[in-house]
Amino acid sequence: MFPILISIPHGGWKIPPEVKDLVVLSERDLFDDSDPFTADIYDIGDMAVSVVKTEIARAFVDPNRAPDDLPPKNPDGVVKTKTCYGVQIYREPLDEEMIKKLLDRYYFPYHKKIQESLKNPEIKIAFDCHSMASVAPEISPDIGMERPMICLGNVKGQSCDYETTEKLREAFIKAFNLPENEVTVNRPFSGGYITRRYGNKPVPWIQIELNRKLYLSEPWFDRESLKVKKERLDQLKNMFIKTLELFFS
């Protein structure tokens, strides 16, 4: 068992039943806004001390945002009005009562699981695990830019020291057989709300971003059915496990 907590906040695809009748997103819009199949890649079960994940799509409740990060100030906040590609989510805006209901049922329980897990002294480091679009969407500061295969974020040294982060970077390079420049630190992502909130308090946290090009591309991915070949997801999971073995060796 690895002495780690794994958080997978954006791996869900489900629509909360409370808002199902208000949603105007297509299945593909929902797919493009989420981190598809990240639970299949990062959830290593009882090989980790703890795994925290959600079935609810980030389009509806985003655990990787502050609870007061709300629209209209931020359409990409904890409860969103638009996807990261600018597609409208709801037929009409949610009222305050519904927003509170969504947070109480799906947001705060996610963070409670993290907080309870972090009480376990067996956990020595935590990873917040994501996937990223191969080319940055319009909502991102690096809009239109090609992204590396893997990005590690340590909030510029605040959530985890650079020595530990570099050890993980080298493990990813070896396990995924990538060139040095394809595994970056803090570029384009230095770490989201979860990594910033919990990092080094007292356990170090690193945000991990896998480029979707690693599996949402030919020959593994069928764009019509939105399905990925299981053997590719299994392969990536095994590469992630190999990364952890190298990191802890």
TrEMBL record:
GO terms for molecular function: hydrolase activity. It comes from the Bacteria. InterPro entries: N-FG_amidohydro. Pfam families: FGase. Keywords: Hydrolase. This is N-formylglutamate amidohydrolase. The lineage of its organism: Bacteria, Pseudomonadati, Aquificota, Aquificia, Aquificales.
